[in-house]
């Protein structure tokens, strides 16, 4: 993969650009995609931005959100945008399989592909890119990309709001160890430009439905197990649990972090039963590498302190398997 600067000449004339991100997009996926889409549009490019799946409600307020195409709703329009594109940007993932339904069509493309991402171990399928695991968020890399192009002055309040959302959500509101000085410098620059950071925090974190709040109460009382001898916590949610509270997409967001707020707990896992697979989310504090853990046992990956994976076995078998591994490895 060549450095992203080598792709700059391709953007010297107006292009048809396709941008996409990972399946089940989060704040960084959508924030970085919209930030880049708004910036490239401002430069005169014609952008098609596609989310592989539904966009969670807590991001509905974002500037440009209505221009995003949900592949599950409009696959033909997404495919047309991809066919017509002269350049393809892939944001916040580094393996086509993370886009689920878009995997095949991305693999078949022949146009130049550009990666902007911060996960470990990128697949060697991109022509150009920035792949920096030390960066807290893809949003910060999009900000760096705009600056490398010499376009800091083009970052308006809409672009700032999108990029700040990615920065804030992927750093856990500036608390995770990946939150470097450069992340704070970026926030400082955006606030200098007039960004209302309190409003963005409220839009993302204080926009729950009453049902979601009561679901959280149920989960913490009924569904969380704490294994003090392993410094670990586990939340497991079956389809029945999810249906009980008619949870919406995004309602399980952040649940995995709760066990880590208990003193001594260093490793937290959320197991969710989905229609087509059992999904696992892992978070850790300190020196337990959950990315390696997800790769080794659950066909997944991610970051050192935040990762995910899956099984193709049943929900209850997954719980048994997970607990067996936990007792075998004793993460500290
Ligand atoms: P989450 O638990 O929020 O789904 O994911 C946590 C982090 O791990 C995110 O950065 C996400 O991109 C990454 N991740 C989640 N699932 C997978 C997976 O199956 N494979 C890989 N490589 N990364 C994943
Ligand atoms: Mn990210």
Count of folded domains: 2
Shape: globular
Q: Please give the number of β-strands.
A: 13
Weakly predicted, low-confidence segments = none
What is the rounded Rg?
20 Å
What does this structure look like?
The strands form two sheets. The chain has a seven-stranded parallel sheet with strand order 1-7-6-5-2-3-4, sandwiched between helices. It has a six-stranded mixed sheet with strand order 8-9-10-11-13-12. It folds into two domains: 204 residues, inorganic pyrophosphatase (n-terminal core) (Alpha-Beta Complex); 120 residues, Diaminopimelate Epimerase, Chain A, domain 1 (Roll). Helix 5 packs across helix 7. The chain has 332 residues and is α/β, with parallel strands linked by helices. Bound molecules: guanosine-5'-monophosphate and manganese (II) ion (MN). The site of manganese (II) ion (MN) has 6 residues, from loops.
Search tags:
7-stranded parallel beta sheet; about 325 residues; globular; inorganic pyrophosphatase (n-terminal core); 6-stranded mixed beta sheet; Diaminopimelate Epimerase, Chain A, domain 1; alpha/beta; 2 domains; 13 strands; binds guanosine-5'-monophosphate; binds manganese (II) ion; 11 helices
